[in-house]
Amino acid sequence: MKSSPSTPALDPRTLRDAFGAFPSGVVAVAASVKGQLTGIAASSFTSVSIDPPLVSFSISTTSSTWPLLREADHLGISVLADHHDAVCRQLAGPREERFAGLPFRVTENGSVLLDEAVATYDCSVHQEVVAGDHLIVLLAVHEVGGGGGEHPLVFHRSGFAKLHRDDLDPARLDGRINGAEVGSRESSHESKEDAA
Ligand SMILES: Cc1cc2nc3c(=O)[nH]c(=O)nc-3n(C[C@H](O)[C@H](O)[C@H](O)COP(=O)(O)O)c2cc1C
Questions:
Q1: Which stretches are tagged as biased composition: Basic and acidic residues (predicted)?
Q2: Does 157 share its domain with 177?
Q3: What CA–CA distance (Å, rounded) separates 30 from 99?
Q4: 38, 39, 181, 193: which sits with the fewest CB atoms below 10 Å from its CB?
Q5: Could you tell me whether strands 46-49 and 54-60 are parallel, antiparallel, or unpaired per DSSP bridges?
Q6: CB neighbours of 36 closer than 8 A, spacing ≥ 6?
Q7: Cα(44) to centroid of ligand 1, in Å?
Q8: Do 152 and 171 reside in the same domain of the chain?
């Protein structure tokens, strides 16, 4: 959507701060491409579709890694665990050092999956959509797994955090998730699953 002529241009710093207010997890997107370990850290990962199974992440159009990674037949997505903060920084750092000393496995189709990830996905590129200074990469999901990790790493306001599970008091909520009445604990659970 175009902004009207009277709308002042959004300052990139202000926009970054607003984007940073939204918490996310972080994933490793990685593959062995022609025998070369290739990957990045990405906080833009999100689930997209159940049928067909699709997930997405966004990659900068200036990425020097994506032109290599997109050549992989299969890509591994590993949801980073809360002790993976240094791993995350390493995967976002100098290309030749990204996998140095990391515990990971390479599947027979070339996906690279980190040990102790909270969840893993075996994917292939389904579609790339140009979106401003990023590409939205849609990935077809072929297989999912538990990576052995328990709690996810959280990325918020440019920093790492842990998820502190402290479920909201139902008495202070409006009692509805997706329009469904949340009465008992069980029905609340069902509604959450439907909402996922
Ligand atoms: C927490 C975190 C999240 C990141 N998320 C993304 C992302 O979603 N998309 C992206 O293009 N780069 C993201 N990056 C940067 C990449 O990991 C990587 O540093 C960048 O792609 C530059 O390397 P390249 O030129 O080899 O691609 C993130 C970095 C960090 C530390």
A1: 183-196
A2: no
A3: 10
A4: 193
A5: antiparallel
A6: 68
A7: 9
A8: no
Peptide bond into 52 cis (omega under 30): yes
Question: 88 in ligand 1 pocket by Cβ < 6 Å?
Answer: yes
Name 27's bridge partners.
42, 79
Closest CA to 38 of 76, 74, 78, 68: 68
Q: Rounded to the nearest whole angstrom, what is the distance from the C-alpha of residue 88 to the centroid of ligand 1?
A: 9
Number of domains in the chain: 2
Is residue 18 domain-resident? no
Q: Does residue 123 fall inside a structural domain? A: yes
**Shared-domain flag, residues 157 and 171:** no
- The answer to whether 154 and 25 are in contact (CB under 8 A) is yes
CB of 90 sitting under 6 A from ligand 1: no
Q: pLDDT tens-digit profile of 52-99? A: 999 999 999 999 999 999 999 999 999 999 999 999 999 999 999 999
Tens digit of pLDDT for each residue in 15-36? 999 999 999 999 999 999 999 9
Q: Residue 53 sits in which domain range?
A: 24-165
- Indicate if 127 and 177 belong to the same structural domain: no
Question: For a pocket test of ligand 1, which of 16, 43, 114 has the largest count of ligand atoms closer than 8 A to its C-beta?
Answer: 43
